[in-house]
Amino acid sequence: MKLKFYQGIPGEKTPWLKNLEHNLFTLFVCAYQWPVVMLHSLLCRSRKHYEHEVGICLIFRNEARFLKEWIEYYLMIGIDHFWLYDNNSEDNFREVLEPYISRGIVTLIDWPQKFAQQAAYRDCHRRTKHSVHWMGYIDADEFVNLHKENNIKDFLRHFRHYPSVNLHWRDFGTSGHLKEEGLCTERYVAAWPYLCHMGKGFLNNDYNFMRVWIHEHWAKWGPIRLYPVSDNKLPVPYAPTLWRNCGIGKRAYLNHYFCRSREWYLYKDKQRGSANAAASNPIKLMAGRFELHELKCTVHDYSIQRWLTLLKERIAITEIGE
Question: How many structural domains does the chain have?
């Protein structure tokens, strides 16, 4: 699938010079990283023993209505455990999460700081780097959409030698829905016709990490910095667009339900604000931002709905148990 620079600000122009710098740097990384990764694999054959193979970290605020679908979906594709950071929620999230906490599937952490997403991610890495092999840092509006595998463990096994793998966003709009009801993966199918150069990632704790960030994670081996790869196994430092025609997204990408309904968009951008930085709030309030995202939704993507019947059955069984 084609990859393009993500323009999330009305009137923003593509930074061609910065893109060129990032693309040239990516070629440099491509030249040195693969031999280093292979050497690391040969010299570090004694793998750590982990309690969990794959986990996910999430920071959330007032998203209780979405958590059951999100958790059940990720359990269905192979996630073992969740570290959920509550960032001053005022809804019924505890009621939704209690069955998963009692089953030992969810670890709930109170995280009341403002603009605390990066701090939460760093805290989660500190807690889990010795107990979880692969850790994903994913939002509640992001669903890993696997295309060649049916289990995320099988997908990540292809990247066992690499420090981290990034999955690119495919942004979805409202699909004409004004109010919030039903399942996100069923209702929202109108999408952008290309992938964004940004996304989210899973890091491999066989490596040591010097930076755990929102959109990518940097490992280190001695003095050498190692960057994430995309699902085509090519490096993607600083989210370049260099590999836009090299098979990115064929194995997996992230369904990013940017808007959900019009009602939810107005709440999350106009009232709730950013979990990351104060500087992001004025951007969220800019006129035309909704239209910028919504009017790019010119195709429909139903691919994640191959899971829909199984997902509905899981949710129904959970609700009977409650």
Answer: 1
Within a domain: 3: no
10-24 pLDDT tens trace: 888 888 898 899 999
What is the CATH classification number for the domain harbouring 21? Answer: 3.90.550
Chain centroid, CA 272 distance in Å: 20
Pick from 37, 15, 99: nearest CA to 228: 37
Could you give phi then psi for residue 167, rounded to 5 degrees? -110, 130
Task: State the burial class of residue 226 (Cβ atoms within 10 Å of its Cβ: 0-12, 13-18, 19+).
Answer: buried
The verdict on pTM exceeding 0.85 is yes
Using one digit for the tens of pLDDT, what is the confidence trace for 213-252? 999 999 999 999 999 999 999 999 988 888 888 899 999 9
Domain containing residue 134: 13-41+50-173+187-236+252-321
Residue written as token pair 């010119």:
298
Burial of 110 (0-12, 13-18, 19+ CB in 10 A): exposed
